[in-house]
Fold:
Amino acid sequence: MITFVGAGPGAEDLITVRGQRLLEHADLVIYAGSLVNPGLLSLCREDCEIYNSAKMTLEEVLDVMIQGQAAGKEIVRLHTGDPCVYGAIQEQMDELEKRGIPYEYCPGVSSFCGAAAALKAEYTLPGISQSVVITRMAGRTPVPERESIRSFAAHQATMVLFLSTGMLGKLSEELILGGYTADTPAAIVYKATWPEEKVLRCTIETLEQTAAEAGVTKTALIIVGRVLEGEYDRSKLYDPAFTTEFRQGTSSHSFDSTSAGTERSGQ
Structure:
């Protein structure tokens, strides 16, 4: 069996229990060496065959998979975060499908979740934003025009941007042209959950300057939106006056979201 496994955002103990078990029992592991924490390989048996896909083409990865499967080996294809986001796994799965080779998919914790933890932030605050746009700037891999940064910015939702750290000047410009104000809160999270993690808070206007001053040029996520301000409406789910399937509402209750947000952002 071939199993695609999400390695998590970086910290070794943020791989799932299932992912850890699969690594421990694997006969062969192909890991994304440029992004996956190499410490995870310590979970593998001493006799496990290990390949670094950072140095391989798709065809070379498939050859190793196919030969390993034909030899009856348990194979783990280890990707960073959760590979459903910019993981380039669909083309691998499609090729396995064509050949009738069985495979499974073990999800992982995405780096955008790790970034939220680093920021101590919730991306979907009542009254502020109830949507998260996960996207990227166009680079060597193009982005459809209908999914431009400018068009998404018009929604004023929370935005998490992958693979865009080297284009922050242009990113700021597109966000502002799309509708965000220049002083909208933003953050740069470098290597979320890794020991060398950096959290840089700024505004849309100062993204490029902030990254340059910190020496951050890659392996970072950009988070944009008013959820980083700290003010929001109280959740109805836990409001004493709100009736749910499991609880009868009793009375009104005041809640100072500004005060709560200030305490939260000062942690």
Q: What stands out?
A: Residues 112-228 form a domain with the Methyltransferase, Cobalt-precorrin-4 Transmethylase; Domain 2 fold (CATH 3.30.950.10). Strands lie at 2-6, 28-31, 49-52, 75-79, 103-106, 132-136, 158-162, 185-190, 198-203, 220-224. The two ends are 46 Å apart (CA to CA). The chain is about 25% helix and 20% strand.
